Amino acid sequence: MSGMDEEKLHAFVGKMLGDLGGAFSVPTVRIGFRLGLFDALAKDAATAPQLAERCGGLSERYVREWAYAQAASGYLEFDPEAGRFSLSPEAAMIFVEQDSPVYLRGAFDMVAAMIEGEAKVEAAFRNGGGVAWGDSAACLFCSVGAFFRPTYANAIVQQWLPQLEGVVDRLKAGARVADIGCGVGFSTLLMAEAFPNSEFVGYDFHPASIADARAHAAAHPGCNNVRFETAAAKDIAEGGFDLVTMFDCLHDMGDPRGCARHMLEILKPDGTWMLVEPMAGNRPEENMNPVGRLYYNASTMICVPTSLAQEVGEGLGAQAGEAKLASLIGEAGFGHIRRATEGPFNIVLEARH
Fold this sequence. Notes:
The chain contains 14 helices and ten strands. Helices cover 50% and strands 16% of the residues. A hairpin with a 4-residue loop joins strand 2 (77-79) and strand 3 (84-86). The strands form two sheets. Strands 6-5-4-7-8-10-9 form a seven-stranded mixed β-sheet, sandwiched between helices. It has helices at 6-35, 37-43, 48-54, 60-73, 89-95, 105-116, 118-127, 140-160, 167-173, 186-194, 207-218, 256-266, 290-308, 322-331; strands at 46-47, 77-79, 84-86, 176-180, 199-204, 226-230, 241-247, 267-278, 336-342, 346-352. By secondary structure, the protein is α/β, with parallel strands linked by helices. Helix 6 runs antiparallel to helix 8 and helix 8 (140-160) packs parallel to helix 10 (186-194). The chain has two domains: 6-95, Winged helix-like DNA-binding domain superfamily/Winged helix DNA-binding domain (Arc Repressor Mutant, subunit A), CATH 1.10.10.10; 105-352, Vaccinia Virus protein VP39 (Rossmann fold).
């Protein structure tokens, strides 16, 4: 091809080999999670036969090939002289430690869910419609909940809520909180456990998510200050909330502007709306980076189809950016809007009357 730069071509092929290697690793990593292979290696290094036996008598031939694949990916360390595989402490934070902020089992499951929903999203490309939340894959909502849980467990109570003006003191004393778009309930339960004097209601428009949230609550019998209800954000009839929280969900809503107006109505006059959204710059070119790459792809397969399946169907997208979000919130009638804090993957906005 005329004008082609051979050096650039080779560099691009190298990049694609790296990308495809990561893609090829998704099913084998998921098998490793489900069969306990990573957990077993976190205890001690092992040869393939030892690892197979340690995991309940798995097939050694499969385990050996699996271990070579993980070592080639750089996920496991391999000692060729001893024929042993091991998991570094750093890799254990990704593959074993479930309360680690970088535990990524949910991320691998979410990739599989996006692939499962590929045909439905492709059809939406052609007809301009949407794909309703929960319809694209069997348990997309489960994997999304698992993907966000490590961040929430390490940030909501410890980092985000303390950055809101006066909110932690109100929660300690006893406040009414609505966690809207709560999904399977992880965010709501984390807050409810941390602030036993406050009352928490988790809302989500997806009945299966609420069913899972109630099951998770039942597994925490000491958490008596939380309940879960099926309701779309604009249909919530209760009011008088001291705090409304939304974690990674406003951009998924069909009518985020109508939702924002309703938040003003259900909050107390001195109440606070905490809005957590994916980290993004205000211009697309600011998002051409590894985080933006993840979010744009997830938004194409999940967020935009979900929004377009709902009333209004604005399709805000996961990379809307702070300026657009703040403008939307301000148009709804909120007079005080600020970025309270941020992390590598999220921005946290505080809005008041």
